[in-house]
TrEMBL record:
Matches recorded under Gene3D superfamilies: Ribonuclease Inhibitor
Protein name, per record: R13L1/DRL21-like LRR repeat region domain-containing protein
Entry-linked PANTHER family: LEUCINE-RICH REPEAT-CONTAINING PROTEIN 57 (PTHR47186), NB-ARC DOMAIN-CONTAINING PROTEIN (PTHR47186:SF58)
Organism placement in taxonomy: Eukaryota, Viridiplantae, Streptophyta, Embryophyta, Tracheophyta
R13L1/DRL21-like LRR repeat region domain mapped to chain residues: 2-93
Domain of life: Eukaryota
Pfam families, per database record: LRR_R13L1-DRL21 (PF25019)
């Protein structure tokens, strides 16, 4: 080929061609020799017996910078020892390639991708090609890709590992490597030299020996590592050099052996520790060791599905975490008792099933989550610390979530306060026993409250103090308590003495702080006293019809009450299965901007008195075709109409 200005060349044989003639294809490829200054070459689908001579012994493209080989059937492969300018090399779906020769000419190679090489099993250094790198020492002048930045190895079932000699590690190997990806190589051994690659920014290793996943990332916000082990991973030491990971800020371990104290002490930058589906969190510290003065900078711990003596392990660890601000305990069946605000060193009743919160958490802990802890029970210590029982000792706690932990508060009387007044967010799911909200009336800092399936008879008594002077609650979600708002009059009346000495009753109007409300107690909410109370503050209302089976229409009283919500900007109707009409009078909601109707199959039309002129979005999802068709007819009158 005489095209001297050609810089990129792709030679692609159709994989669906009707006939294959290896000899002919070899001759054709031999005759397609490009000029020596070609920079990018791709050969795909060629079934000749070997590479062309101009890529082999008579290498003639010395200016080559990128070489892609895909689906070729060669037994003889290119000799790249003269490709001194090669920057990128990619071999894909080549069945006969058994070894990869590490040429000295790879001194400027920046990207190497080896994908779908079914026979590839060893790395070879050219000076000693008769021996594999994995079995012999390299020559004294051996190098490991001095400028390589990206290394990808996928679907190579026979390869045993990276080209390290007998796991001997040198910081000169892969000195510039930033991205390493190894997928679906079942014999690949992720030996500890990965930790020695100091330049790494992204490492993803999946489905290899000992590991289901090893994912490392480093950015301006810090370094993160996730390890999911296989059954043959006996120790984290097999895949990680802890003293080389001192910059690690987030560590997630799943199906791994417990961390040892010596490992933790090396992770001097660790802020978040997550352990899942494992026997334990940390190995036994031992009383002798735990008395030694040492601390960790960990601020967040999440444990999920641990099966060992997790309570005892965590009890020993917590006193050494002075900065701990977030703790999540999920599905740890062997932790059955929680005691808050104690001096661990002076507590004799410690057991493997008990978790003791040391007194210092009163000042450091900001967030506490208990999802899926069916056996966990909160108990008071023998001697209460100042601040009361329950969780009140955690005086800096701002967020608390209790999800499907039905026994957690079972030993307490709901006639007293259980939570610290510092709480700003409280979510209780499946926590029964509370009859009213009086136990929460001290939560003057609370801005969001979620009560989901907390008893059918739960009433809103005590809510008033959270929504008026001194309260800050602006988001409330209550579902599964079908009489929550029933008979509630948030505007109490007070007696005034008239001029003749008699008494007359006057309603005391108080403004509310609530801006957003989710509820399925339609009957209780849509009453004049409640809606009057919320009229000046409520901007978003989401009504759920799960408890309204058989409800076909809103009553006149309910429609009138809804119209009192003059500040409402977003109104949503969800899962009203039998409702045939939306409430009349929506046009009077002059601040309404968004109307959403979701899963209301019996509604066939919009209200006869139309929608407010302020409406900017109408969203109809999974409703009748009649309603959808009517909404389509409003296009052009409402800026944004979504119909699904």
């Amino acid at each position: 080929m005489e095209k001297n200005y050609l810089r990129r060349l792709t030679l692609d044989w159709d994989s669906k061609r009707s006939s294959v003639e290896p000899g002919v294809e070899a001759t054709v490829l031999e005759g397609l020799q490009p000029h020596g200054d070609l920079q990018v070459l791709c050969i795909r689908g060629h079934v000749g017996p070997s590479c062309p001579t101009w890529l082999g012994d008579e290498f003639a493209v010395e200016g080559l910078q990128s070489l892609y080989l895909d689906g070729v059937s060669w037994e003889v492969f290119p000799s790249l020892g003269k490709a001194w300018d090669l920057r990128e090399l990619r071999f894909e779906h080549i069945a006969r390639l058994k070894e990869f020769i590490i040429e000295k000419s790879f001194c400027v190679l920046t990207k190497l991708k080896l994908i779908g090489l079914g026979s590839f099993e060893k790395w070879v250094y050219p000076a000693e090609q008769e021996s594999s790198i994995s079995g012999e020492l390299l020559p004294p002048d051996a190098h490991m890709f001095p400028l390589l930045q990206v290394l990808v190895i996928r679907e190579c079932p026979k390869i045993l590992g990276l080209p390290f000699s007998n796991h001997i590690v040198s910081p000169d190997w892969f000195p510039k490597l930033q991205e390493l990806e190894v997928h679906d190589c079942p014999k690949f051994l992720p030996v500890i030299p990965i930790s020695w690659i100091e330049s790494k920014r992204s490492v993803t290793v999946k489905c290899v020996k000992m590991l289901k996943e090893f994912a490392y990332s480093k950015s301006s916000t810090g370094a993160q590592l996730k390890i999911i082990g296989e059954s043959d991973l006996l120790s984290i030491d097999q895949v990680l050099v802890f003293d080389k990971e001192t910059g690690l800020e987030t560590l997630t371990l799943s199906k791994c052996t417990p961390l040892e104290l010596k490992h933790l002490l090396m992770l001097t930058s660790l802020r978040t520790l997550i352990v899942k589906d494992s026997v334990g969190l940390v190995g036994p510290l031992g009383r002798g060791q735990s008395d030694v003065e040492w601390q960790l900078p960990v601020e967040c711990i999440k444990i999920d599905g641990l099966t060992g003596n997790t309570g005892e392990e965590l009890t020993e660890l917590l006193p050494h975490l002075p900065k701990l601000s977030k703790l999540e305990i999920q599905d740890c069946k062997n932790i059955k008792n929680l005691v808050v605000g104690v001096d661990v060193q002076q507590t004799a009743q410690e057991s493997s099933e008990m978790l003791l919160f040391p007194a210092h958490l009163r000042d450091s802990l900001r967030e506490l989550d208990f999802p899926f802890c069916p056996e966990l029970v909160l108990v008071d210590p023998p001697t209460l610390v100042p601040g009361g029982g329950g969780l009140q000792a955690l005086q800096s706690l701002q967020r608390l979530t209790i999800l499907r932990a039905p026994k957690l508060l079972s030993t307490f009387s709901f006639s007293r306060h259980l939570f610290p007044s510092s709480l700003q967010f409280l979510s209780l799911v499946g926590v029964e026993g509370m009859e009213t909200l009086e136990p929460l009336s001290n939560l003057s800092s609370l801005t969001r409250l979620e009560l989901i399936r907390c008893g059918k008879d739960l009433k809103c008594q005590g809510l008033w103090s959270l929504l008026t002077t001194g309260g800050q609650l602006n988001k409330l979600r209550v579902t599964g308590s079908h009489r929550f708002f029933a008979d509630w009059d948030p505007n109490p009346r007070r007696a005034l003495e008239d001029a003749e000495g008699g008494e007359e009753w006057q309603t005391q109007l108080v403004s509310s702080t609530l801006r957003e409300l989710w509820t399925d107690d339609i009957a209780g909410l849509l009453a004049a006293p409640v809606c009057t109370f919320l009229s000046s503050s409520l901007t978003k209302l989401q009504l759920w019809g799960d408890l309204c089976e058989g409800m076909e229409l809103f009553s006149k009283e309910q429609e009138d009450a809804l119209q009192l919500l003059s500040s409402l900007q977003k109104l949503e109707f969800w899962s009203f299965k039998d409702l045939q009409q939306l409430p009349a009078g929506l046009r009077k909601l002059t601040s309404l901007k968004i109307l959403l109707v979701n899963c209301c199959p019996a509604i066939s039309s919009l209200p006869n008195d139309a929608l407010p002129d302020s409406l900017e979005m109408l969203d109809v999802y999974n409703c009748s075709e009649e309603l959808k068709q009517q909404c389509r007819g409003l296009e052009g009158t409402i800026p944004d109409i979504i119909i699904i």
